[in-house]
């Protein structure tokens, strides 16, 4: 896809983030109920209403493109272009009043992510990654660029929660033992921090397409890599384990720690 077309689609993605944020902000720290879905994850009216708002905008501006969202499934499955939406990545953070969640918007061309947005509607931070370009960041503090860190012994490691690791916890423990320190929490916000050079390595499990598709263009446009735990590029058929490194020199050692 040419640069001009990608730029136009990036503007549409940002408009979708704007409408999602307009839905989410009035509901943050409000008295709203959370339901538990079949996969044991929580969902609120904010998740559903934000996705509906994004779908309406995308259907109007890119009617030829497919849309896949966490809450309402897939429309136009045969389309070569497909938007992938997670209205609130980090619903547990949202319902407990912590601004460590984000809205994720990705665009796939023939299955390959070419555009990604991470938007934090409470803090006003936004990361926009476009294939072949440097990631753009808007926020009160920080600048785009992963940190040079060629040794795991000096690396800041992060993961959203120990529970997501399941029976792979011993493999993560090997990586944790090799790293400088481990912090927990963050969902997609942690990946945004990696793109700002605040975190060096993130290893997570059980991610769906809508959880990771937007992250790759953001991280790679900031100088890092997003792969699976074996070091391979993520695809729609991947098992759901994700390994992000700010310095590509860390990839081999991190993947070796996580090897089954």
Layout of strands and helices, then pairs:
Layout: H1 3-24, E1 34-36, E2 42-44, H2 45-61, E3 66-69, E4 73-75, E5 81-89, H3 91-95, E6 102-109, E7 112-120, E8 125-130, E9 136-138, E10 156-159, H4 169-178, E11 181-184, H5 188-195, E12 201-204, H6 209-212, H7 215-221, E13 225-227, E14 242-245, H8 251-258
Parallel strand pairs: 3-5, 10-11, 10-12
Antiparallel strand pairs: 1-2, 3-4, 5-6, 6-7, 7-8, 8-9, 12-14, 13-14
Can you walk through the features of this model?
- By secondary structure, the chain is of the alpha+beta class.
- The protein has two domains: 3-137, 2-Layer Sandwich (Fructose-1,6-Bisphosphatase, Chain A, domain 1); 152-258, D-Maltodextrin-Binding Protein, domain 2 (3-Layer(aba) Sandwich).
- The chain is built from eight helices and 14 strands.
- A hairpin with a 2-residue loop joins β6 (102-109) and β7.
- The longest helix has 22 residues, at 3-24.
- The model has no long low-confidence stretch (mean pLDDT 96).
């Amino acid at each position: 896809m040419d640069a001009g077309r990608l730029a136009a689609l990036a503007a549409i993605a940002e408009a979708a983030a704007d409408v999602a944020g307009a839905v989410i902000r009035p509901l943050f720290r409000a008295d709203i109920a959370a339901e538990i879905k079949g996969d044991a994850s929580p969902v609120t009216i904010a998740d559903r209403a934000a996705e509906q708002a994004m779908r309406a905008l995308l259907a109007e501006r890119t009617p030829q493109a497919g849309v896949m969202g966490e809450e309402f499934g897939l429309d136009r499955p045969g389309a070569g272009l497909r938007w992938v939406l997670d209205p609130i990545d980090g619903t547990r953070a949202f319902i407990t009043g912590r601004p460590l969640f984000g809205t994720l918007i990705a665009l796939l061309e023939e299955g390959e992510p070419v555009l990604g947005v991470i938007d934090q509607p409470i803090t006003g931070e936004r990361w926009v990654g476009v294939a072949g370009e440097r990631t753009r960041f808007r926020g009160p503090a920080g600048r785009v660029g992963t940190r040079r860190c060629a040794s795991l012994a000096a690396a800041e490691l992060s993961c959203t929660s120990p529970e997501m690791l399941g029976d792979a916890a011993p493999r993560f423990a090997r990586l944790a033992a090799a790293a400088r320190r481990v912090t927990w929490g963050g969902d997609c916000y942690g990946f945004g921090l990696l793109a700002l050079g605040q975190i060096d390595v993130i290893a997570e499990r059980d991610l769906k397409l809508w959880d990771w598709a937007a992250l790759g263009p953001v991280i790679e446009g900031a100088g890092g890599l997003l792969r699976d735990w074996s070091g391979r590029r993520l695809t729609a058929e991947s098992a759901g384990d994700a390994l992000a490194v700010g310095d590509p020199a860390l990839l081999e050692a991190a993947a070796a720690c996580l090897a089954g």
